[in-house]
Design brief:
Layout (H helix, E strand, L loop, with lengths): L10 H8 L6 H25 L3 E5 L5 E6 L3 H12 L3 H6 L3 H11 L6 H17 L2 H11 L11 E2 L9 H4 L3 E5 L2 E12 L5 E8 L10 E6 L9 E6 L10 E14 L5 H37 L1 E2 L2 E2 L4 H31 L8 H31 L11 H13 L4 H15 L1 H9 L5 H15 L3 H6 L1 H17 L4
Parallel strand pairs: 3-6, 4-6
Antiparallel strand pairs: 1-2, 4-5, 5-9, 6-7, 7-9, 8-9, 10-11
Helix pairs in contact: 2-3, 2-5, 5-9, 6-7, 6-9, 9-10, 9-11, 9-12, 10-11, 10-17, 11-12, 11-13, 11-14, 11-17, 15-17
The structure holds flavin-adenine dinucleotide.
Flavin-adenine dinucleotide binds next to strand 3, strand 5, helix 12 and helix 13.
């Protein structure tokens, strides 16, 4: 390898430069080779083709709600499942192989990791909270190793909004013997068409707010074989076109309660933990991809007598951004490793879990902001060609904007991060963790800034939270990047 910038060209090479051990390296290598030879072309075609088509009725007028994709969509989708993005987590009782695979795959297609994330967000709560009967019925199909594997989905958001779920979820669940019947509408339903979804709903008569929410498993088909949920339409999205996102109508849909009816909010947050960590990993991989594309362009494009990469300003920008990429990766990977320690915990949670939550909010926030900024910069490196859909640089900005919004916007991460610092003193746990690696003077300054901030009156504390949270995210990321491999 000639220069550190060369690590940008391959996700596996970058991972090897940052991590001491990489389980299943051969699997990651095979995935990367396949994506280079075949997957990238399919992914580009799916992105250009736009939204898949919803066929609501068959020839006899029966409601079928079938989603029609380009045929090759199934090729890229099923590959990741076979490689073990879901089954390995449950079989090996570790999330590390899952998130490594997500990094590897999302370098080539960030959207395709959404179906994997929501399938994980279905399989994990089922394996933790489902009754023995529910587990024996639904876990085997979700963890199959061949193309007949079932997919999951995680549907919380309704028309009134995703940030304030306690106020916005109006779907009601009524008990009906050994199951529940759910009625309501979900407004953003990714991986719609999945065989099984976890759905947030309020049991009839339950308390208002998030405390009254419960989590239900909703199969695509009713026990009598009829459709159990209906797809009203598909969203025409700017990106993540390799996953269909729709609107779903629940009409007395059969659902099975996970956990207890009055503790659903914990389960919902646990599902979000899995997806926020995935979002962080995917954001870093996307930033790496945008940089890799910019690098190969900057090596070939000449101006003022030499490749643009060899001009001091641009080369410095590349080197500096690689340094930041390494630090945001360290932050994202810390959230992976902490989640891997706490994902089987039940409420009441340990301090380690609260530390994880703070790191996950910092990671979701900062990796997505960095991905957006890097995608914009990579377009600029391409100059005027950067705005032409033909060459692909603009795709990373479209994809990155979605990463910053779904799984909770940056505002949500900042405010939830503040909350876990106030209520659980998670910043203290973080500073203890960083004490071994961060310079002590900087650590003390950061600590006192956070403490001062938390003493402010509520309104001011929220209003001024972003610069503090950003500083804390950068400080944490840079400290973690110093950790020896
Ligand atoms: C492509 C895509 C796919 C999705 N798939 C799914 C899915 O499968 N399942 C699912 O459940 N959801 C899904 N979502 C929904 C997503 O989680 C929500 O869009 C997100 O949580 C934000 O909710 P909202 O769009 O309703 O915005 P709102 O909650 O209406 O917020 C609007 C704005 O106000 C800000 N805001 C809200 N409260 C505050 C506050 N207290 N202080 C400061 N600012 C605030 C928000 O940050 C945001 O910027 C998807 C979204 C997208 C874009």
């Amino acid at each position: 390898m000639k220069s550190p910038l060369d690590t940008l060209r391959s996700p596996l090479t970058f991972l090897q430069s940052r991590l001491e051990t990489i389980p299943h390296r051969d699997v990651l290598g095979a995935e990367e080779a396949w994506w280079k030879n075949e997957g990238i072309a399919i992914s580009n075609a799916i992105d250009r083709a736009g939204t898949p088509w919803l066929r609501m009725f068959d020839r006899l007028g029966k409601r079928v709600d079938e989603i029609l994709y380009p045929r090759e969509y199934q090729t890229i989708l099923r590959r990741g499942y076979r490689a073990g993005v879901i089954w390995r987590a449950l079989e090996e009782k570790s999330l590390i192989p899952t998130y490594l695979l997500m990094y590897d795959i999302s370098f080539h297609d960030p959207g395709i990791c959404c179906p994997y994330t929501v399938s994980l967000g279905t399989a994990v709560p089922l394996s933790k909270y489902g009754s023995a009967e529910l587990q024996s019925r639904f876990l085997p199909p979700l963890t199959r190793k061949d193309d007949s594997v079932w997919q999951g989905a995680t549907w919380m958001t309704e028309i009134k909004g995703g940030s304030d779920l306690g106020a916005a979820v109006e779907t009601i669940a009524r008990p009906a013997g050994d199951r529940w019947l759910l009625t309501g509408e979900k407004y953003f339903t990714s991986n719609v068409g999945a065989e099984l979804a976890v759905v947030a709903a309020r049991p009839e008569g339950a308390a208002p707010g998030v405390r009254g929410l419960a989590l239900f498993l909703v199969p695509r088909y009713r026990e009598d074989g009829g459709l159990n949920y209906f797809i009203r339409r598909l969203k025409d999205k700017i990106a993540t076109r390799s996953v269909p996102t729709g609107e779903v109508e629940l009409k007395e849909s059969e659902g099975y309660l996970l956990g207890s009816a009055d503790a659903g909010i914990y389960l919902i947050l646990e599902v979000l933990n899995l997806s926020r960590v995935a979002n962080s990993v995917v954001s870093v991989a996307l930033a790496q991809r945008a940089m890799a594309d910019a690098l190969s362009y900057a090596e070939q494009r000449a101006a003022f007598g030499k490749p643009i990469l060899d001009h001091p300003l641009l080369r410095h920008q590349f080197e500096n951004r690689l340094h930041i990429l390494q630090s945001v990766f360290a932050l994202a990977w810390e959230s992976v490793e902490l989640l891997n320690e706490v994902w089987m915990e039940h409420a009441p949670y340990s301090d380690r879990y609260h530390l994880f939550r703070l790191v996950a909010h910092l990671a979701k926030y900062w990796t997505a902001e960095f991905a957006v900024d890097t995608a914009k910069w990579a377009m600029e490196v391409h100059g005027g060609l950067g705005v032409l859909a033909e060459y692909g640089a603009e795709r990373w900005l479209r994809e990155a904007m979605i990463l910053a919004i779904w799984e909770g916007t940056s505002h949500r991460q900042i405010l939830d991060g503040l909350e876990v610092m106030e209520r659980k003193q998670a910043h203290k746990l973080l500073f203890w963790r960083l004490a071994e690696i961060a310079p002590s003077k900087e650590l003390q300054e950061m600590e006192s800034e956070v403490e001062q901030h938390l003493k402010m009156p509520t309104e001011k504390r929220e209003a001024l939270a972003e610069p503090l949270f950003r500083k804390l995210a950068i400080f944490t990321a840079e400290s973690l990047a110093r950790k020896p491999k």
